[in-house]
Structure formats: structure tokens, C-alpha cells
Specification:
Order of helices and strands: HHHHHHEEHHEHEHHEHEHHHH
Number of strands: 6
Strand order of the largest sheet: 5-4-3-2-1-6
Largest sheet: 6 strands, mixed
Helix content: 40-55%
Length: 358
């Protein structure tokens, strides 16, 4: 079984590599499925890479990749994606106050850190906003993050399109999962899974309740090794800092509230800066995405292919993991109760099915 370090090295080589000859076949087919041609021209190289690699193990791969590309393009037209980094949306300031997020420093590879703190999310306030507006605002937020990652990658001279998420569960409870609040959170998180694929490097869940950590430990044997390498469910921030250090996250990049030294930059400030300066214009689709791929490093060829073959659907996004938490937390509790009493689970929890999408 591969170690976390070995898995990280394989995924690192894949992320920094150009599209392979095999991947170019799917890229061309996916782009050909987008009509009219003007919509195709709005896509960037990273858009194509994210879809091709994010759906690399779906079956049938060609059809699923084409379907995903068309879905993303159609959604972008519907929500006026082109204007996300050009002008403000109604209620944007309110939305970012209801669900504030910050961007912190990079790990040793160059992946920036973002954080979601449950105690800072006003789920009651979110339910008061129109759903269509919520999804548009979330899409705008993630677009700003994507641009921030792109500019950072340019500054370090590497292709990087993934980030690290720290999810602070302090203040979470079953009330967060009840009624319309659960529905709203799931819908918001689905924006990431559906329209921003292949964007996560690692997830660190901090201040996870003891019960949740126990449940995570029990389901890990059913989870793909790559997902296990990507997700860490931890107790105290001290535990999190130690774990992050093991995988190359320096203290000065870790949030100050988590024991690090980085104050973070609000994503809303980043968004406003792009709009004010006009720096959020999308990069055009370079012809290299459709032509011969750049020759990857010798180690990258086999390494990237191996990681692709092994990854299952682990690359789909951190949002899928949190949708799983929202949908299955209670079912996991029921499963633990029944298991500890020698009973059998009837319905609800299907680990092989649910965790295949994490």
C-alpha cells in the first residue's frame, strides 16, 4: 500500500504536468461537445484540465467528460459567469458576512490554504436569501478563489490549480443539519462539486467531535487510499498543526486561530480588488490545450498515469466530502449504534457507494 508521501508525489506530478496524449483525446471530444463555438473560446486551459482529470475514472469516461463540460458551460451562461470578476452582485457583502472565508499561505508545493469555520456560518441568514442568488454568489466566491490560485501559481512559476481546505467544526451540531439549513448548505456545496471539479489538494477537519473522529476511523477501511491521504479528521488545533507539518505546511502559512501565524486575507477583499482593478479577466484557451502536449518529466509519465488509475473518484472535490457529512452523519451514528450492539443496518448507509464519491 502506498504511503501518504508516495501518493502526494504522484498527485503532485500529475498536477504540474501538461495534458497527456491520452488526456488530449478526451479534451478535444469534450470541447467539441460544446456549442456554439463562441462558448468554447471562453474556456481556459485550466478549465479543460480540471474537467478531463476530474472525470478521469467515470464510466463511460468519454460521455461523462463531455456531459460535465457541457453542464459547466451551460451553468456559466445561466449565472453570467463572465461577469463574476467584473462587477459586484446584489447582496454580495451580506453573503460574505453570512459565510466568511479567508485565504492563507501555501504549503511546500505551492497550494494555498482556505478555511471554513462552522461557527462563523450564519445558516439562518443564508436561508433568507433566494436560492438562485445564493448559488450565483457562491460561484462568484469560488471564481475569485480560482483566480487567486492562478495568479499565485504564475508567481511561483508552476501549474497549480488545487488548494487546501481547513474545516473547523467547532460550534457544529445536529441543528446545522436540520430542515432547510441542511438543504441550503448542500446546494451551496454542490456548486463546488459540480462546477469547480478537481480543485482540492487536502482537507483538514479540525475540532472534530470525538464521536465523529471515531466514526471516521471506522469507515476509513472502506475508503480509497487516495481519499484517506487527502482527508485528515482531527481533534484539537494542536493536532492539526502537527499533521499539517508532516505533509509540508509551514507554521507561517497556517491560520492564526489554528495555532499558526497567518492572519489570512478575506475572499471578499480579494473579489473586490479584482473587480476594482480589472485583473479578473479570464485567460483565453491556449492552442497548446488542443495540440501536442508538452513532454512531461520522465518520472511524471508513469507517476501521473498511476495516480490517475488509482484515484477512483477521489479527485472530484472536497465539497463531495462535506455533502457526505451532511447527508450521512446521522446515518453513521445509527450505524455505530447498531454495530456496537451486534445489529444490522437496514438502508441509509452504503459505504461502498457513498465514499466512492469522496
Amino acid at each position: 500500500m502506498s504511503t501518504t508521501a508516495e501518493i502526494d508525489d504522484k498527485l503532485d506530478r500529475e498536477e504540474t504536468s501538461s495534458l497527456s496524449e491520452e488526456e488530449l483525446v478526451f479534451a478535444k471530444a469534450a470541447l467539441a461537445a460544446v456549442e456554439p463555438a463562441e462558448l468554447r473560446e471562453k474556456l481556459t486551459v485550466l478549465d479543460v484540465i480540471s474537467v478531463v482529470r476530474g472525470y478521469q475514472t467515470y464510466n463511460p469516461r468519454l460521455e461523462e467528460t463531455q456531459k460535465a463540460m457541457k453542464m459547466i458551460v451551460e451553468w456559466r451562461e445561466q449565472v453570467q459567469y463572465d461577469k463574476f470578476l467584473q462587477e459586484r452582485l446584489p447582496d454580495d457583502e451580506k453573503f460574505h458576512k453570512l459565510w466568511p472565508e479567508r485565504v492563507y499561505g501555501p504549503d511546500k508545493y505551492g497550494h494555498l490554504i482556505t478555511a471554513m469555520r462552522v461557527e462563523d456560518i450564519d445558516t439562518n441568514g443564508l436561508t433568507e436569501l433566494e436560492e438562485a442568488k445564493l448559488y450565483q454568489l457562491q460561484g462568484q466566491k469560488m471564481t475569485a478563489l480560482g483566480k487567486y490560485k492562478e495568479l499565485h501559481a504564475r508567481s511561483i512559476g508552476q501549474q497549480r490549480y488545487k488548494h487546501i481546505l481547513i474545516a473547523d467544526l467547532k460550534g457544529s451540531g445536529m441543528g446545522l443539519l436540520s430542515g432547510n439549513r441542511r438543504h441550503i448548505l448542500k446546494q451551496i456545496m454542490d456548486i463546488g462539486g459540480n462546477y469547480f471539479p478537481e480543485s482540492v489538494w487536502k482537507i483538514f477537519v479540525v475540532n472534530a467531535p470525538l464521536m465523529f473522529r471515531a466514526l471516521w476511523g471506522m469507515v476509513k477501511p472502506w475508503i480509497h487510499p487516495i481519499t484517506v491521504a487527502k482527508v485528515s479528521v482531527l481533534g484539537s488545533p494542536k493536532d492539526a498543526v502537527k499533521k499539517m507539518a508532516e505533509v509540508g505546511v509551514p507554521l507561517d502559512s497556517i491560520p492564526d486561530w489554528c495555532g499558526g501565524a497567518h492572519a489570512g486575507t478575506p475572499l471578499f477583499d480579494i473579489l473586490l480588488k479584482y473587480i476594482a482593478e480589472g485583473t479578473g479577466e479570464p485567460s483565453p484557451l491556449a492552442t497548446v490545450a488542443l495540440g501536442a502536449p508538452a513532454a512531461p518529466a520522465a518520472a511524471a509519465g508513469a507517476g501521473a498515469a498511476a495516480s490517475a488509475a488509482a484515484s477512483g473518484r477521489a479527485g472530484r472535490d472536497h465539497w463531495v466530502f462535506f455533502v457526505f457529512v451532511l447527508r450521512k452523519y446521522q446515518a453513521l451514528l445509527d450505524w455505530l449504534h447498531l454495530h456496537s450492539h451486534g445489529g444490522k443496518v437496514s438502508g441509509g448507509l452504503d459505504l461502498s457507494r457513498d465514499m466512492a464519491n469522496v
